[in-house]
Amino acid sequence: MNDKGVSAANRLDGKAAIVTGGGMGMGAATARIMAGYGASVLVADRDLAAAQNTVAAIVAAGGVASAVACDVGEEDQVAAMVATCVATYGRLDCAVNNAAIAPDLLPIHEADMAVWDRVIHIDLRSVMLCMKHEIRQMLAQGDRPDRATYSVVNIGSVSSVRPQPGNSAYVAAKHGVIGLTKTGSIEYAPKGIRVNAVMPGAIDTPMLRGALADTGFTEADFAPALSLFGRFGRPEEVAEASAWLCSDASSYVTGHALAVEAGYLTR
User: Fold this and answer.
1) Averaged confidence pLDDT in the chain
2) What is the separation, in whole angstroms, between the first and last Cα of the chain?
């Protein structure tokens, strides 16, 4: 496991966590890293086999995890996901709402509204649904005995703050994720629940590789414009940020959108 040299405050021992979209990419990396820091992780994904693969990797490394099939755009499935976490681990202490689908790649005047609605459904509505049911469970549990805070982390994007042409639905959804995050932070800070966001840049995931394949370009073509380091980020680099926001090391952080984008937003 990847816990060597980690301070006690950064550990997640005794915490039960949900990671959505945990079957691949950033979600899978987040589930693995959080389990490595001691959390018991419910890996949720629409593709149950993918979630089970993540769980198998965690268990093989000595961690604790289980899988659940969940379409996070459907409220009954989200409610069942949270109930499964509680039934399996007895509680819910932190959650990373990561599930998302790719941008729409059409200018506004050519938008396919069925595609547009689907992106909003998965990339924004799902975050609202997850927050609703995760926070409801945290409130029902009451204050943590150790006075530590509960934590919800929503995965936004650099598109949460910098519009990208041709991606109207994705940009609108990811802007909305930051709005939900800030609203939630205000509403639930008095209840001991922190709500933050992570905004990844160009991260080497199946979603990004699929987009590259559609264009015919390579990492070498795009990375210098998207990163001051001239490379794509690794899913683990985003996962570490999410794990920190779930840990007690970030106990004074709420309502924050943490950019993990190798300086892209400084340009």
Assistant:
1) 92
2) 36
Distance CA 197, CA 43 (A): 19
| Radius of gyration of the chain measured on its C-alpha atoms | 18
C-beta of residue 127 within 8 angstroms of C-beta of residue 75: no
Would you please indicate which residues are annotated as catalytic (active-site) residues? 170
Which parts of the chain sit beneath pLDDT 50? 1-2
Domain layout of the chain by residue ranges = 8-266
Q: What pLDDT was estimated at residue 54?
A: 98
Q: Which fold has domain 8-266?
A: Rossmann fold (3.40.50)
For tokens 């629940």, name the residue: 193
* Residue where the block lists tokens 């396919």: 112
The encoded tokens of residue 119 equal 């992106």
pLDDT at residue 217, as a whole number: 66
Residue 192 zone, left/alpha/beta (φ > 0; ψ -120 to 50; rest): left
Contact between 197 and 155 (Cβ < 8 Å): yes
- What is the distance of C-alpha 139 from the center of its chain? 21
Cβ atoms of 97 and 153 within 8 Å: the answer is yes
- Whether 198 and 21 have beta carbons less than 8 Å apart is answered as no
